[in-house]
Amino acid sequence: MDLIALSRLGGRHLVTLHLLLDSRSVTRSAERLCTTPSTVSKTLNQLRDLLGDQLLYRQGNQLLLTPFAERIGPSLRRLLGELNGLTSQEGFMPASWQGELTLAMRESSMVWPMGPILGKLMQEVPGLVPVIHNKDEQGLAALAAGKLDFVILPHD
User: How many CB atoms lie within 10 A of CB 45?
Assistant: First the structure.
């Protein structure tokens, strides 16, 4: 990961690029951003330098996407959707969340207490996929390394 290059690529660049890829028009993108076409053109030139691609090129009276721009469009849309989720005021909705919960525990813990707890959790969060490891294989070191979400250490 090139953190220096990423630090130069800001949210303004990403939103502008998304609008340009979507509308293929500097003027329409500027209108949606409540700015001037000159500002959008300047941002496009910065993006070209940062990404090392022309992104859009003029053919006749229309702007066309380069193959690189076509390829990054869907990823950019998903990324902006995720970023939008960070700034929204909506609370956490367990019923619509999807993801993995990675746990490590003793085998005996699955019967009690974790079996009933996981059952109830999976009812409340239907998109939850528990990934369970044996505590002896992946324990506190794996938790410290970020490979696990929880380690359950019940007393015998």
Answer: 11
Cis ω before 67 (30° cut-off from 0): no
User: For position 21, what pLDDT does the model report?
Assistant: 92
Name, in order, each residue with C-beta under 8 angstroms of 9's C-beta and a sequence gap of 6 or more.
50
Please give the sequence-ordered ranges of beta strands (E in DSSP) within the chain, or none if there are none.
56-59, 62-65, 98-105, 127-134, 150-151
Cβ neighbours of residue 28 under 8 Å, at least 6 residues apart?
19
**Greatest distance between any 2 Cα atoms in the chain:** 76
- Tell me, what amino acid is at 41? S
pLDDT digits (tens, 9 = 90+) for 117-141: 888 999 999 999 999 999 888 888 8
Residue 66 has what pLDDT? 94
Strand ordering across the sheet containing 127-134? 127-134, 98-105, 150-151
- Cα–Cα distance measured from residue 108 to residue 95, given in angstroms and rounded to the nearest whole number: 29
Quick one: pLDDT at residue 123? Answer: 92
% of the chain exceeding 70 in pLDDT: 96
Separation of alpha carbons 154 and 152, rounded Å: 6
